Amino acid sequence: LVDAVTDAPVVGHDPLGDGAAVDLAELTQSDQLSVVANVDPATEGLHRVRFDLDGQVNFRVEALAPYTLFGDSGTNINGGSLSVGIHSLTVRATDSSGTLIGDAYSLSFEITDSTGGGGGGGGGGGTELGPLPANTQDLFDALTGTVAYVDGNGGSDANPCTATSPCATLAEGMTLLNGGVVDNLVVRGGSEENPVVYREAVTISRSGVTILGYPGEVAILNGLVPASSGWTQSGNLYWRTYTTSLWEHPMASFEAHYGFPQKEKAPEMVVVDGEPLLTVYAKADLVAGSFWREGTAASPTKLWARFPGDLPPSSFGSVEVGDKPVLLTTRGQNVSGVTVAGLNLMYGPNSADSDTVQGGIFDTASSSNSTFRDLTVMWANGVGVSLYGDSNTFLRVRAIKNGQLGFHGNLRTSTVTDSSAIANNWKGFQARWEAGGAKLTASTLDNVIERFYSANNDGPGMWFDVGPKRNVVRDSKFLNNQFVGFFFERTTDSFNRLENSVVFGTRLHQNVLHPENVDGSGIHIQATGFNTVESCTIYSNEGDGISINLPDGDGSNRENKFFDNLLVNNGLGGALGNPKDYQFQILCDAASAFVVDTLTLDGNLYWDQPAAGDEIFQVSCKSGAGTSSLATWINQTPSVNEALLNANLPVLEDETSPDGYTVVGAQAAGKGAALSW
User: Fold this and answer.
1) Which of 45, 140, 279, 385 lies at 20 to 30 Å from 463 by C-alpha?
2) Distance (Å, rounded) from C-alpha 652 to C-alpha 539?
3) In a domain, 422, yes or no
4) Confidence at residue 581, expressed as pLDDT on a 0 to 100 scale
């Protein structure tokens, strides 16, 4: 254990032992700790050191020493924060194929805080993964019209809601805002250590209004209610009355029908010290750290919980249950010219996403010409952000650690800039069913997405499915996601573009219902045509670098184009293994040869893997077998100016990258992405 301010080991925790108790008071700053894995860089075959934290596989992947939990910039170790409670950590050294070198090292340890500060963020992320102070000074200075103020830490609803005499609740402020009494609502917050929490939900029903978090302060909308008391013990289980009616997706018990007891899609939430417990399908399936709902979602009667460590609820700092599935919405209101900025939305008992019934805990449906910026959306039970509307602007919107998806929706003629989806799908949804970083569907048309950061999601980094057309994604990073880094699917004549972006480290995923289906492609194209991938770096993905599959009934793979991309060191295999992974693979048959014949490939560069017998390319309907021959690839595809990079593995990593990740995206021989962030 390292104090990241001094970069020195914490006394008494060198090495960090299994079962250790770490008091945050021992650190210079409570949000500046790290763990260093003492792995010899000269270990034969060493390629990566991987940290699995609290069940999140590959929470951090390090290429260069020192190997640290939150990264480093050369000799300086980056710090992060861990929530108060018990954490599990596994460290694995792997070779270039993802195969384990030696034994994995696992331990558990407890974070305590005798200062009462409570740790950071909840759930093992660094401070960058928690709520943020409002970045709204420019908007605040430019406010015009009348303004109401809300302060949940010192206001009163008997007050006139002015700057010096604020009201206490969002409900009071929204009555004034939606009723036309004021034009703007300013929400006061607190410090990062002591934010102001509003256990309320907001619906915006009036056009032209502004809601701002007060500059530099942290205000949180929270979808939970306290529930530390009221539990009755029954053996190692505890139950309490629960009658909150919630909407449940029709596929809520789908997994259970196939013998998987975790009821992944149930909407209820029980949160202990900031960490959601997992739901199970039946009472008999309860284990420590899980809960079960008795009754139906619409008519529940009780919640049964088996708390972490089989401890009673009184042992924890807080126990909360969900009661508000949507925290801020415009759905059904047909508003325009709205501005919302500088707020944090956390926790909400929503089910899996539905376009027509219920969206994320932050939902912009039925809005237009509006601006949503500097928002953090975390720990939704289902979807975090529902991206909807026309001609909207989304700036610095972060979807972090949501149960199913970070972003979902249908968006038109809008911009999404400097936004991120990080560590979503903690409930373990099948990555092939609406899970991961971002999924945009249906009438997602004519949008520009720039500098999007999608990392460590258990599902695709970004997914266009069944309808998106004429969208441009550029200057973005898709790092260490699962199943597919960037997925184009099921849209005829889509004309979508992915430009100047990095797709790195996609992890293999095995379909539970069809275990023969394993994928970890950097870019996957399925039943969709007229897409363009240009100047992208596609690097060290466990599956294929680029994979094009057969049409599957409602789309066509014709006329896809690939220009000036750099494909390096893909097909690593990983823990699931797959000897048939390539830099570029096209799966087709004689009836779908147009998949190949209508391609355009021009100026792409492939790293020539040096091991004897390695296959770089496959076109199944032309030869069936893979090949390492560039001449064969050019003969089988409409290729122009394709080339091999006959050199050592190019260095595409930068430990000093501003995002703290090892890969920033680089070029080799002028090919691939050239990112400035």
Assistant:
1) 279
2) 8
3) no
4) 76
Q: Is residue 72 part of a domain?
A: yes
pLDDT digits (tens, 9 = 90+) for 172-198: 999 999 999 999 999 999 998 899 999
Question: For residue 17, what are the domain limits?
Answer: 2-129
User: Residues 109, 250: one domain?
Assistant: no
Q: Which residues pair with 429 in a beta bridge?
A: none
Q: Compute how many other C-beta atoms are within 10 angstroms of the C-beta atom of residue 554.
A: 12
β-pairing, 605-607 vs 462-465, is unpaired
Please tell me what DSSP assigns to residue 208.
Answer: T
Last residue of a domain, one of 322, 350, 370: 322
125 with 241, same domain? Answer: no
pLDDT tens digit string along 308-322? 999 999 999 999 999
pLDDT tens digits for 345-366? 999 999 876 667 788 999 999 9
State mean pLDDT over 288-300.
94
Give whole-number Cα distances, 661 to 115, 347, 477, 588, 655, in Å.
Answer: 31, 27, 11, 36, 7
- Please tell me the distance from the alpha carbon of residue 641 to that of residue 377, in angstroms, as a whole number: 45
Query: Is residue 473 classed as helix, strand or coil in its secondary structure?
Result: strand
Q: Does the predicted model carry a pTM greater than 0.85?
A: no
Q: Which of 88, 57, 55 is nearest to 509 (CA)?
A: 57
Q: What is the pLDDT of residues 541-568, one digit of tens each?
A: 989 999 998 776 556 788 999 999 999 9
Quick one: tokens of 497?
């573009």
- Rounded distance between C-alpha atoms, residue 493 and residue 205, angstroms: 37
Q: What percent of the chain has pLDDT over 70?
A: 89
State how many domains the chain has.
3
Q: Are residues 436 and 583 in the same domain?
A: yes
**Pairwise CA distance, residues 92 & 113, whole Å:** 29
Contacts of 577 (CB under 8 A, 6+ apart): none
Residue 662 has pLDDT above 50, yes or no: no
Query: How far out from the chain centre does Cα 661 lie?
Result: 15
Q: What are phi and psi of 254, to 5 degrees?
A: -55, -45
Tokens 């920033």 map to which residue? 664
What is the C-alpha separation between 266 and 297, in angstroms, rounded? 8
**Distinct helix (H) and strand (E) counts, the chain:** 5, 65
DSSP output for 567-608: EES----TTT--TT--SEEE---GGGTHHHHT-EEES-EEE-
- The encoded tokens of residue 176 equal 């004034």
Residue 391: inside a domain: no
Chain centre distance of CA 229: 33
C-alpha span between 426 and 403 (Å, rounded)? 5
Structure-token match 């996403």, residue found: 353
Does residue 613 fall inside a structural domain?
A: yes
For residues 274 and 254, what is the distance between their CA atoms, to the nearest angstrom?
Answer: 28
Final residue belonging to a domain, choices 322, 341, 357: 322
Residues 587, 459 share a domain: yes
Whichever domain contains 91, its CATH number is: 2.60.40.10
Are 362 and 375 in contact by the 8 Å Cβ rule? The answer is yes
